[in-house]
Structure formats: C-alpha cells, structure tokens
Amino acid sequence: MNSKLKTIKEPLFHVSKRSKSSLKTYQVILIKASFLLTALVLSSIICSAISGYSPFDYFYYLFDGAFGTDIRIWRLLKDMFLLLGVGLALIPAFKMKFWNLGGNGQILMGCLASVMCMFLLGDKKGWSDGAVIPLMIVTSILAGAVWAVIPAIFKAFFKTNESLFTLMTNYIALEFVRFFIRNNSTQGSTMPKINSGYLAVLGGNDYLLSIVIIAILTLVMFLYFKFSKHGYEISVVGESENTARYVGINVKKVTIRTIVLSGAICGLIGLLLAGSINHGISENSANNMGFTAIMAAWLAKLDPLLLLVSTFFISFINNGMSNVQTNFELYNNSISKVVLGIIYFLLIASEFFVEYKIMFRKKEKNVEKTKKNAVVNLNDNNVYSETLTEDIEMVIENKQALNEKNKKEEEIND
Fold this sequence. Notes:
It is built from 14 helices and two strands, in the order E-H-H-H-H-H-H-H-H-H-H-H-H-H-E-H. It has helices at residues 25-51, 55-67, 70-95, 103-123, 129-158, 162-184, 208-227, 229-239, 241-246, 251-277, 289-299, 304-327, 333-355, 364-413, and strands spanning 13-17, 356-360. The chain has a two-stranded antiparallel sheet. The two termini are 48 Å apart.
C-alpha cells in the first residue's frame, strides 16, 4: 500500500504560559534585575550621546539626585510614600477588577475640601486650627470617597464602563480646582500660601507626618487583605461575580464599599498634600500620581508590601533623572521623558518573561529522528492494516464455504 507522508513545518518558536511554580524567587529577581540593568545602560548611552557626557556621569548624577543630600533623601521618601498611598487606594479596586482611573480627581477633591476649610474658615473667618483641622480631615476623606462612589454606583446598578467614567471625573475635578483658584487667587493657577489649618510637624520635618501615616496605612491594608472578611470578599468578587453571588456575597454592596475605601484613601492623600506639605492647592497638586500609581500597583502585583519596592524605584528614577537632566544640560524635557519611558517599558517587559516562556524549534537532528519515527510508525500501521484486511477476507471465504456445505447436506437429506 503506497502512502504519502505529509510534512508539517514547525515554527521557529512558540510562546507558552509558565506554571506558577516553574520559576523560583531568585530566577524572577534575576530576570527583572537584568532588564533593569539593560534599561539603565541604554538610557545612559542615549543621554551621553546627546549631551557629550560620559555614561559614568549619568549613573553618578542619577544616584546623586536621589541620595546626594539630606534634603534629596527626604524628598525621595516624601514622593515614594505619597505614591505608595495612592497605590494603596487603587489596589482594593483593582483586586475587584474595578479599573479606577480617577485617582488624580479624587486626590484633587480631597485637596480642595481641605483648602476650602483652611482658606474660607481659617484665613477669612479666623477659626482656630483646633476647629479647622477636624473639619479638614472629615471633608477631605469624604470628598474623595464621594467622588469615587459616583462611578461605582453606576457600575453596580447600570453596568457602565468604570474606566471611562472615572477618567472623566479627573477633568471635572480639575475644573472645580481651577474655578476655586480663579475666584480666590491673583496668582494664576496656584493659591497663595494659606496661614491656617496646618497639620502637626513631627521632628521639625514637614514630610515626616505624611510618611508615618502612610506607613501605618500600608500595614493596615496588608492586614485588611490578608485576614479580614472584606478582603476575602474583594478577592472573590474579582475572581468571579457569579461565584461570589453563589456563595452569598452581595456584589453591589462589596463594589460600592470597596470604591468608597479607595476614594477615601485618595482623599486622605489630598489632605496630607494640602495641610502638611504644600499648604495650598494648584492644578498640579496631584502630580499625576493617580496614573503613576497604576504602574506601581501593577508592578507590585497588587501586594501592599511589594508596593513599597515599586514606588521606591519609580521615585528614585524620577528624582534621579531630574538631576541628570539638569547636569547634562538637557533643556528639552522630551529627552528626559523618552528615557524614562524606555526604563519603564523594559521594566514592564520583564513581566512578560516572568509569566511566559519562549520555546524554540528543536535542532535538525531531533527533527529528522522524529520524522524517521513517524515513517516507521506509519509503515507499521500499513502492515497491520494489510494483515487485518487479509484476515477479514479469509473469514468471509470460510463462511461462504460453510454455507455451501450446509446447503449440500440439506439437499442430500431431502
């Protein structure tokens, strides 16, 4: 029996998802560290090629910008912990697969509520700090929560797209801030420094109170997700709303409650910005932290403790690159942003190689061996088919002969 062997060309490589236990912790660290080192080396080459400075100068100014003086270290810690606070606000929503892109707006609303108390009640009406500060705390947290819960209600009851809804609330919050500044300031897009409603200063440092509060909040959120019933419900709803309903969880209630928490934390960050750090408000008070924290939370895999690492790295790169730009005389901000983009892109790309593996085509010898085995198997199958056919034909012939014999015996008997 003649047969043709169909040749299937194997692709050069294919991508497959890794199992959860396929990589050890040190292997994950090595993959991410190699991508990070590649990103830093590549950015040093780009900056050096444009400015004429040495790549070694790049690394010096990068670390000097973050750790060169006490002031720079405190500024790094301040930026890191504020970003950490916003990341902690986004994690509950993201665990539930509610994509809260409105962090900037919720921070601004918290800032605005605090500044209105400080300016309108403290500066203009002469209220004491003892009366103003409690109002600041309540109104700022409430403002952030209310600004977040509006899209949550529409998502829970009407299935609206929370990404677009929360994104649009950023622009509305920004216009509220602009309206307040235009009606109460003569300095353009910023308010003059307010003289009342200052939060406590710890150790003579304006940043320390914010750092301590957010550090405590990090521990609380870790325990909340790890051990509380609410944290468990968030995870179940995030995995499957149908499963959550089946086990008796009220999905609408959990959605609204979680987003209230998310917005309240953003409002708290707004309070710290207005009452402890800036003592005022501007259009840029949120400093785009609502979007930067998305990347930080994603890099941390929505883990509050790993978020410490990702926010530290992002703050280090931002502060260091600012110093590199100044000392390399890169007056075009676009260059700095391109370099930052390359670093972030490669860092995010490292996650692909943690989650997936690339399988290359086998060597030619193995391919030929596989083909030979296939041919042998096919020939064996053909031989077996031929033998089986002969056996069937023999059985049919024997049956026909037996029938004829029976007929003859019947004729003789008759």
